Amino acid sequence: MLKVMLVDDEPYILQGLQVLIDWESGGFEIAQTCSNGKEALKYLKENHVDLVISDIRMPEMTGLELLETVKKEKISDAEFVLLTGYDDFAYTQKAIRNGCLDYILKPVEEEELIAVLRKVTNLNRESIILRKDREKMEDAYLSRVIRHLIRGKYTEEEIEYANKHLQLGERLRFIYIGFVHKDAEVESSDSDEYDIGAVQKQLFNSCKEALKEYSNHFTLEVPYDEDNYDVGFIYCENMSSIRDMSETEFLNNLIRKIEVLFIKPVRMYCGELVNDISSLSDSYNSCRRLKSIAGFHNTKKLYFYEETETKHSGIVLCKNTIDEIIDSITKNDQEAIESGIEKLHDELRGKDSTNVAFDLNINYFLFQLIHLASELDDTVNQEEIVQYISEKASEDALTRGSYQHLKKFALEYSSYLSELRKSISHGILASIEAEIRDNYAGDISLKYLGDKYHINSSYLGQVFRKKYGMSFKNYLTNYRIKEAAKQIINTDKKINRIAEDVGYKDSDYFIRKFIEIMGCTPSKYRKSNT
Description:
Blueprint (H helix, E strand, L loop, with lengths): L1 E6 L3 H10 L7 E7 L2 H10 L4 E5 L7 H11 L5 E6 L4 H9 L4 E4 L4 H42 L4 H10 L6 E8 L3 H6 L4 H18 L7 E2 L11 E6 H5 L5 H16 L3 E5 L9 H15 L7 E3 H4 L10 H13 L2 H15 L7 H21 L5 H14 L7 H19 L4 H14 L6 H8 L3 H12 L3 H19 L4 H7 L5 H12 L3 H8 L1
């Protein structure tokens, strides 16, 4: 309901206005009546009102003086309608120049009042749309700024924007928040935006609800991830310090709140602490490394990067055996890989009942793998390798963490590197381009394409990025948005229908992506091009 204040020094006019029409059925509520401008001004300073209907001539403070004071001092953004007689027309002209929406001649007729109220309603509706569009554009821009900060490729203006719109203070770290899923759930789920969104969006909203005052510190815009169910979170030390809690207490408490809302167990992977937002990429990269090896650690809800840096005295690093396994992986010698894993198992058996020795050796093993691919091919993006290891290392180890899984992972990684040495035919990429053109609105993903064309999906992602300069996910998003832009110009379909036509079930996500790529909202794009 829009709130209305009536102002007139004649009581019978105030009473008459209140009963002249059915205010409530028109979407209005009379919040206050005042007998002069000073009384009205005092009320406006302390209360929200959408519309002021005021007599133009009153003692102490006229309606015109009330209008001028409110606009000059920015006391309220309420619309003003003045009640006036024929003799007051010069005052009415001045009022309109000062931002008065309209005027009504006395005696007030029902039809005139209803017409003015309809005008106010339409303006309010347009104002809401504009405000929502502005908020969506601001959200989209902040998401882009965070993505640039995560990548370490930002401008000074973006640093300034982040400092202004995020509640930063003291040191900070990047955190992955992921839900604990079963293998079957991953196998049955596609990795395209809206399919992931069914779970990821739910997690995202649960995170924001659990920490409302820092809701814009959560992001879905994490780069490089093709099949990612996680939500990014920029944690600052002041979040826990102002609550008189330790960092661990605060994050464990946040996990519990998220789980209540999300109705699934979640985990956090915490990158290293950095001094300010300009170093966020360092924390993000350490977070990714942590996630890539966390699957081989004891299962828990909260992982810290600093824990992987801990030195354990007296624990043997089986460097020679691990180096032999790495060499076997390089040669894609499956038999040697299996025997090497068995040898590592024998060497570590019984050395540490708490698995600390296992963790230390696995950390060394995985970090070696991360660098191995770039040594074989200097065009390989290490971030993609980290992503591959993160997915494969965590897939089964989260629930089992056995040497059998380690063996399976090593054999698969060896095959993966073997494919990196091969060149993919242009015919397959051409086929994939055609598939995107024909089925861009469908459930199309790297996993689907990899299975269809018998290509490792992670490697296909690498090749795709090399050719097009962007991830498959971003390529598909760009293609969909460009197709949507064509429909917006060439048809009169509603925006939400166009969103569905190009493959988006979530219209809010579609609008955010449209703003990010086209630079404005779909409705504004239509107005500018038709």
